[in-house]
Write a structure and sequence with these properties.
By secondary structure, this protein is an all-alpha fold. Helix content is 85%, strand content 0%. The chain has one domain.
């Protein structure tokens, strides 16, 4: 059975992806804002004392006066500046991580959508081959070769799209190679079926494609 992707599902998927990014970004930001400030202060104090060659004793259980020392350090403008700088650095690092994850998710969604469209188109051509072979009583060997041309053509298109998505091909290179692949496929069908056969086969492809479009439209109306 052919697969019929829904535009509604694609739109909902994109909205869900955006919502996930906003929620995650908010969660990460909240986590930074709630970070224990004493840990930051202790780290800065230790670094300042090491620069001044003053040994810092790290205790397993902080002494009662350690919290007072931290509070007093909070009043130091230089310490406050370093705390703010460190927090901004952590926020920027996490924001970049979230953005990269979001972009990767969007890239994967785009690849899945393209794969679904190719699956549908391949089903259209496969069904057209079967209908054409049955209508004109095509020899099994010819039908098998025609199926092979269709499958090989779509495999080539998928490989090119994968290379383009991963940055191995520029948009111009991708368009050029994609058009070349289509031309090669048409030439192979012409060599196999001849001009009249190509016209007849093209008619079945058109009819099958129209049937699929009508089915997709019907299913989308049912979901609305």
């Amino acid at each position: 059975m052919p697969k019929f992707p829904s535009r509604l599902n694609v739109v909902l998927g994109l909205l869900a992806g955006s919502g996930w990014w906003m929620a995650l970004a908010g969660h990460r930001k909240e986590r930074i804002e709630r970070r224990d400030r004493q840990d930051i202060i202790q780290e800065i104090v230790s670094q300042k004392r090491m620069r001044n060659e003053v040994p810092v004793q790290i205790e397993a259980s902080p002494a009662p006066q350690s919290s007072e020392r931290v509070e007093s350090c909070l009043q130091d403008p230089s310490v406050q500046h370093e705390v703010e700088a460190q927090a901004k650095a952590w926020a920027a690092e996490i924001s970049n991580e979230v953005l990269e994850e979001y972009q990767e998710e969007q890239r994967q969604e785009k690849m899945e959508q393209a794969s679904q469209r190719m699956d549908v188109m391949q089903d259209v051509f496969t069904n057209a081959v079967d209908a054409y072979a049955e209508e004109f009583d095509v020899e099994p060997m010819v039908s098998e070769q025609l199926h092979g041309i269709v499958e090989g053509g779509f495999e080539r298109q998928r490989a090119l799209f994968q290379q383009h998505s991963e940055g191995e091909l520029s948009s111009r290179e991708y368009r050029t190679l994609r058009n070349e692949a289509r031309a090669d496929g048409k030439a192979s069908v012409l060599d196999l079926l001849g001009e009249e056969g190509v016209k007849d086969f093209g008619q079945f492809v058109q009819e099958e494609g129209e049937r699929v479009r009508e089915e997709v439209a019907r299913r989308e109306q049912e979901q609305d």
